[in-house]
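Section 5.1 Outputs to date
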Amino acid sequence: MSSALSELAGFAAQRALPAHVVEKAKACVLYAAAVGIACLRSPQAAQAAAASPPSTGKATRFLDNTKCDPAGAAFANATLFHARVQEDAHAAGHVGVVVVPTALAMAETTGASGADLLSAVAMGYETALRIGRDHAADLSARGFRTTPAYGVFGAAAAAGRLMGFSAQTMTHALGLAANMAGGLREFAAAGSEDFAFQAGTAAANGITAARLAAAGAGSSPSVLEGEAGFYRAFGETGRRYAARLAAGLGTEFEIMGVTYKPYPICQFHRGIVRGCLELRSRARRAPLASLTIRMNPFEADFFGVRFAGPFRSFPQTFMSAPFCASLAWARGSVTLAGLTDFEDADVLALVPRVTVLSDKQRARYSPLVQARLADDTRLEWEERERADAYLLTWDTARRMTATLAAEAGVSAAAAERLIAEVERLDGARDVEALVGALSSSIEERCTSGSGAAGP
């Protein structure tokens, strides 16, 4: 194997983690679980469960609290967790929605401790994000999705860590995972809802890659940077995508840059919504004549970002900057219910007044929002903190858990139990209490039947 991939694999298999990375992993686990609870009524979750073949095992499929083979559970749970696209985020993709369900399924299966789970989660993130961080823009430009393309590596790393892999076996698991990567962005243009299954497939494939490696299967030495390797197949010829793959291992952690989404929308639109809500407040109910959004070209020209209707599905609205901005201005909030109301006259009336401009002067995640009111008053807001404004911390994860649980019809007591079990994970002998808290929250959600309808 390439020395960089071998070094990364060895790190993922054997290295201990500093305390601040463990704490970040806790925040990632809690936030993923909370988003999963709020996804329960999505049709994809039930479809994924129905498509999973009958099996026996120790891993929990949360939708119906059924024990399954870990690959089947990870497929169903990753699909569930991804259904409202509010999972955590990074420039290299939403890999947590793949890594966390995989790690939970494998931790149950192997009888791992809470500390083992957290280390597997952290290593899964680190592996996926390092492989993707210098490659993601080119992969995305070709129409592929970062979440499943890099998430499968994270799933293999997390599974391998919990299976006790050596550095060599982990290297083979990652190499095998490269052959199982995929996922397309056509859903944004078509308005289809198959995006959620991509997370499930990546999770199941990562476990399969790890199992193959455990059985003695090998993979190509040049699987990443070879002439027909992963980077070339999903990127451009001549780019040195692997140059930083192992740089700063043990001292620099990509997981620390993982962010969250206050709303169930594309991560590019967080600042747009924030800006629209601020300008709406300053406008004091004055009618909006026009809204101009200046974005980094990569974001402005991204699949689905300029789409202005007609809107018939959730993927069309969550990817559309004009719709998200109009919803924020018209309703003063951006919720799943609002994003799935395709006949809201007040919102639709504003969509044609929104213009998205590609601006090379704008950095990534730094939109400039300019409003012109009916009386010709001009208002302006710009995102200055970039992605740092949305860093996922333990306090943020707690707050979002309370918010999402309330939206889903889950009691504050159940939410607090989930928070407590994640908080004590690093001292837990196994993950059964955590799984029980999550399962109970989902069961309560099913019983209540309240909350916003799924997409």
